[in-house]
Design a protein that fits this description.
single chain, 5 helices, 46% helix, globular
Length: 94
């Protein structure tokens, strides 16, 4: 089974209350809604520095901020998450 397929099985909906402890550790990365969350996670796992740096420099992947945390706390939106250790990649659902 490919990494991408196995990671797809590891994605899950997550609520802010579950994500908060990871945010406190500074390991939550946001993924823009136009990107494939599983593909981004696979790039993190295989240490594809070129792809990751491109996404980060164009702010399509970025570290979740205090403002993000406050927003999620207030709205409690549907979030999708996948672990690409040590990171937890998060994407807001439609």
């Amino acid at each position: 089974m490919s990494k991408s397929k196995s990671m797809n099985n590891e994605t899950a909906r997550i609520r802010w209350a579950e994500l908060e402890r990871h945010f406190a550790r500074g390991v939550v990365m946001r993924v823009a809604s136009d990107l494939d969350l599983v593909a981004v996670a696979a790039a993190f796992v295989r240490d594809d520095e070129a792809a990751v740096m491109d996404w980060m420099s164009t702010r399509r992947v970025w570290r979740a901020s205090t403002e993000d945390a406050q927003d999620w706390h207030q709205r409690d939106p549907d979030l999708w998450a996948v672990v690409a250790a040590p990171w937890v990649l998060v994407q807001e659902g439609a």
